[in-house]
Please model this.
Amino acid sequence: MASKSLAGKPRKVVPKIMAVIHADGCTGCEACIEVCPVECIYKVPGEDFASVQGWCDIDLDRCIGCKHCAQVCPWDAIDMVPTQDVALHVAFKGGPPEYVERHWDDLVDVAHRNAEVLVTGKK
Model:
């Protein structure tokens, strides 16, 4: 996912909750990007997908579960979910099927890995 910001530092601890942006409800207003203290939210350009506007997504390896994004989202498109359940929520987050298919590893495998680290404490 080339549009991710690489400016933020990796987090030290996997949080108990993480943010999931539902692509079908996100308008790409970027309110969440402005308040994220760790710069883990990035814009997915809509022009890559026919007749779709841009939306925002989250780098799950950097989300710290602070809730700022969910609190400012004017469209209620962001849910804070238990880290163990993030993979399920990400799998059904919506958006263009081509995007989800192309980025499945980034979207779901990362969620599984974070849940495993939270449960076992091992990276």
Q: What stands out?
A: DSSP finds five helices and four strands in the chain. The radius of gyration is 13 Å. Residues 49 and 96 are 7 Å apart (CA to CA). The chain has one domain: 17-120.
